[in-house]
Amino acid sequence: MIVHLVDGTYELFRHFFGGRRFRDTDKPFGAVVGVLGTVVQMIEDGATHIGVATDHLIESFRNELWPGYKTGEGIEPALWDQFHPLEDALVAMGVVTWAMVELEADDALASAAHLAAADQRVDKVCIWTPDKDLSQSVVGDRVVQVDRRSNAIRNAAGVRSKFGVDPERIPDYLALVGDAADGYPGIRGLGPKTAARLIEQHGALEDFPPDVLKGNRANALLFKRLATLRTDADLFTDVDTLRWRGPTPAFAKLAKKMDAARLLDRVQRRASRE
Length: 274
Description:
Layout: E1 2-7, H1 8-19, H2 30-44, E2 49-55, H3 77-80, H4 83-92, E3 96-100, H5 105-117, E4 124-128, E5 143-147, E6 152-154, H6 156-163, H7 170-177, H8 192-202, H9 210-213, H10 217-227, H11 250-257, H12 261-273
Parallel strand pairs: 1-2, 1-4, 2-3, 4-5
Antiparallel strand pairs: 5-6
Helix pairs in contact: 1-2, 2-4, 2-12, 7-8, 7-10
């Protein structure tokens, strides 16, 4: 079987801002319907086991480690108002959903990939997100990252080709170059090529000679901690719990509220075949 793990927060942003190219006003549930449509399309294309991770709260334990770490500040109200409805709609549609509070959606994806890859019944795990962080979860050809923006599927060789380091060294790489989306700056003066070269030469940050990072060592190790995704979230014990078996009875009413009759028809038709 192939397990598909979807970054629900990214998909919500993608559909919210992508939809604005085609309309002048925001529909109350426009982005939610877009995300649900994406998941249904995956099911129509043959996906059987799916899990979606969302950021129920934007803040996490990382905000306590670094004051500049990302928050929900600046998110448009029309988008923010669709965060929790997305989770409710996914659950009603029968999709396993992890709404993260103390951890982030990325931690859930990393944890789910770790759990699924450990199951011998699983042939491949696909993580659907372009986030650089998740590149650290890639394992050979078994766990891959699917980037919708570039239509690229990155295995371990693809990660190395893109960043110049192996997947397990992505936290070290991000610690040095920083991640503007997550709100930490990296080490001043170290660009991607220099960072990759130093990691290739010395390995993990902890193994860098003292004179390489000098007074920046403490911050570099802190940023690495921010960049390192958790893989210990207790999400499931049996990968078969991710199998989609059709919507719950509540989905029809919810689809009507969202003015998504076509989506409801697609879901019901697909469920009748399962």
